[in-house]
Amino acid sequence: MKNQFLVPLTAVALAALTVFVNAADKKPKYTTSEVMEALHKGETNTGKKILQGNGTKEDFAKLVEYYESLPLNPIEKGDKASWEAKTTALLKAAKALNAGEAGALEKYKEAVNCKACHNAHRPEDKK
Question: Which domain holds residue 109?
């Protein structure tokens, strides 16, 4: 009778442990600087193109690919909870754009507040 409960409980515990270990091992594909360079640098950058309503499906996919790294990168300055909130909002907005969700562009416009993020998280020597 004990085995009826012990086997499923052990399986659930192992599955939970596997998820936890995999999440802890996840490394960012791009540094924060690489993300900013790829998406926000220059006069005709991907972020600006999207904000102007001219983004393509490829642009949206690029946002997702790069923004997936931001929450995984260490912060250089400021509060970790703030960093996670801002970077996760960017990623969610990018995913919404990529999925073609209604109101996604407005979510992106809200999330991509460069000044707020830079003031809170960009070191003085990089400004």
Answer: 30-126
